[in-house]
Design goal:
The protein has 221 residues and is mainly β. It is built from two helices and 16 strands.
Length: 221
């Protein structure tokens, strides 16, 4: 039987002084973003979605002037778009990216897939912009199971930074420089591919995809 533990922001807040905690959160989130190696947008291609659903485009608001965009307008599309970064694989380490969802789409949201064994088996850190929710999901045989879900302050048409520190069964997640939750799960313990995930029927852009090793003495929530 799979053992699952959830640690949410309320319990963490009770364990330390707020001012110290906020400073540590920001320092850790900045460390994750700064210490990684950037993955080429061109390396992230189609996985669960057709190749025509993803494209590298010019975007003056992106950090490098280009972004990878998912657009799927078909209302019958059931699954989210998945763009697997072919040269990247990770078991333990740090990941981050920036994403922006368009308010002109019927759905809004994006996320980061990691430890992907197959395009139907992986962990997904997902931000649902319409519902103002952030979640850690287990995707197994194409079916999703929520491990952690918390409220999150996100908006459409704005770039957000999503960062994850993975170590064994522990996943600490940060949004725009603030820690939002830590979740635990042991289903996929091995290294696997990483990928970009977009909400179905959405227009979502990603840039500055970073990956790096966890520091020897990491900060944890």
């Amino acid at each position: 039987m799979r053992v699952m533990i959830i640690v949410v922001a309320v319990s963490a807040a009770l364990m330390r002084a707020p001012a110290v905690g906020h400073a540590q959160d920001a320092q850790t989130a900045a460390e994750i973003v700064a210490n990684g190696v950037e993955i080429s947008l061109a390396d992230c291609g189609a996985g669960g979605a057709a190749q025509s659903d993803w494209a590298v485009i010019a975007d003056t608001t992106a950090s490098s002037g280009t972004a990878i965009e998912y657009i799927r307008a078909t209302a019958t599309e059931a699954a989210g778009g998945l763009a697997i970064c072919r040269a990247a694989a990770l078991q333990n380490g740090d990941l981050s990216l920036r994403f922006k969802s368009s308010s002109g789409a019927s759905h809004q949201g994006g996320g980061l897939a990691l430890r992907m064994a197959t395009p139907k088996d992986y962990y997904l850190v997902k931000v649902d912009v319409r519902r103002n929710r952030a979640l850690l999901l287990l995707i197994s045989n194409g079916l999703e199971e929520e491990i952690v879900g918390v409220d999150a302050d996100v908006a459409a048409d704005v770039w957000h930074t999503l960062a994850v520190r993975a170590q064994d069964d522990r996943f600490a997640v940060y949004l725009d420089g603030a820690w939002i939750f830590t979740g635990y799960d042991k289903t996929f313990p091995h290294a696997g591919a990483i990928g970009l995930w977009a909400e179905p029927n959405s227009i979502t852009r990603f840039d500055r995809i970073m990956m790096g090793p966890t520091p020897k003495s990491p900060s944890w929530q």
